[in-house]
Amino acid sequence: MSDKLQRTFLGFEVPRSVSQRVAGLRTLVEDPKSAVKWVKGRNIHLTMRYLGPTPAGILPEIADQVRQVVAPLPPIRVS
Fold first, then answer.
1. What are the backbone angles phi and psi of residue 45, rounded to the nearest 5°?
2. pLDDT tens, 18-38?
3. Which residues pair with 52 in a beta bridge?
């Protein structure tokens, strides 16, 4: 079975106030020759771990496993 590969990472969304501030800073530092790939403000997140190309069929299992691991952990506050 060949499964489509998805770029996969573990991360979390940041509060809207943080993403808006980062999006505003982007205009100050953006360089068209840069290798940095900027995302739209609404897609700003913090990547905790890049998993790489992952078969789409196992993503639900990965998500379930991650939920089980992080469920007992306290929330992370980002401001």
1. -150, 170
2. 888 887 777 777 676 676 777
3. 8
The DSSP symbol for 34 reads -
Q: Where are the alpha helices (DSSP H) in 1-79?
A: 16-29, 59-70
Amino acid sitting at position 11? G
Q: Give yes or no for residue 71 having a pLDDT over 70.
A: yes
Say what the pTM is: 0.67
Q: Which residues contact 54 (CB under 8 A, 6 or more apart)?
A: 5, 6, 7, 8, 62
- Residues 4 and 52: beta-carbon distance below 8 Å: no
Instruction: Identify whether the C-beta of residue 46 lies closer than 8 Å to the C-beta of residue 78.
Output: yes
List the Cα angle 78/22/70 in 5-degree steps.
30
